[in-house]
Design brief:
77% of the residues lie in helices and 0% in strands. By secondary structure, the protein is mostly helical.
Length: 179
């Protein structure tokens, strides 16, 4: 039932637009009664909260997978692979992502902190002299280009290409990170 409700939200958005996303419409599209929906979700915001938590879990999985794989690859490959996969993740249902972000009103601080932690481990292994500077810029850069994809008029492929170029340009400016 919970899965049906969460799967209904993007369908309502695509079929009827953001203004039509109500708990009644979500329940209707999910094929459940409004009473059943309210047993799990007291309001529309809680549905958005569950979708946001799912997204956070997806991002966490991407980060964990790349951190584990980073041990055997150069730092630039780690960062580019991470950017590409995060852009892909954020390119799906961009309107839904924007809607949920606005409804939950949670800024990108948690995402940047997770990126910083992921990069800190990798940067520490590279031993750069200016680690604090890199750990300020790189997470902000990646967060900006990844979340910027949801607002981009570019195709997903082109947006990913530009995000990778921006990231590589920064990495090129720091040869101590290794390639």
């Amino acid at each position: 039932m919970v899965e049906a409700v969460l799967a209904a939200v993007p369908l309502v958005l695509k079929r009827h637009g953001a203004a039509a996303i109500t708990t009644n419409r979500i329940a209707e599209v999910a094929g459940v009664s409004i009473g059943s929906l309210y047993q799990y979700f007291p309001d529309k915001r809680s549905v958005f909260g569950a979708l946001h938590e799912r997204h956070v879990g997806d991002v966490r999985n991407v980060l964990e997978r790349h951190i584990a794989a980073q041990m055997s690859s150069p730092f630039s490959e780690f960062v580019v692979g991470l950017v590409e996969e995060l852009v892909d993740l954020h390119s799906v249902d961009t309107e839904l992502h924007q809607l949920i972000s606005a409804a939950i009103n949670e800024g990108p601080e948690h995402f940047r902190a997770a990126l910083r932690a992921a990069f800190a481990e990798a940067v520490a292994q590279c031993g750069p002299e200016n680690m604090n500077r890199i750990l300020f810029v790189l997470p902000n850069l990646v967060e900006g280009v990844v979340h910027g994809v949801t607002l981009s008029p570019l195709t997903s492929r082109d947006a990913k290409g530009e995000a990778v170029k921006a990231t590589l340009a920064y990495l090129t400016a720091h040869p101590e990170l290794g390639r």
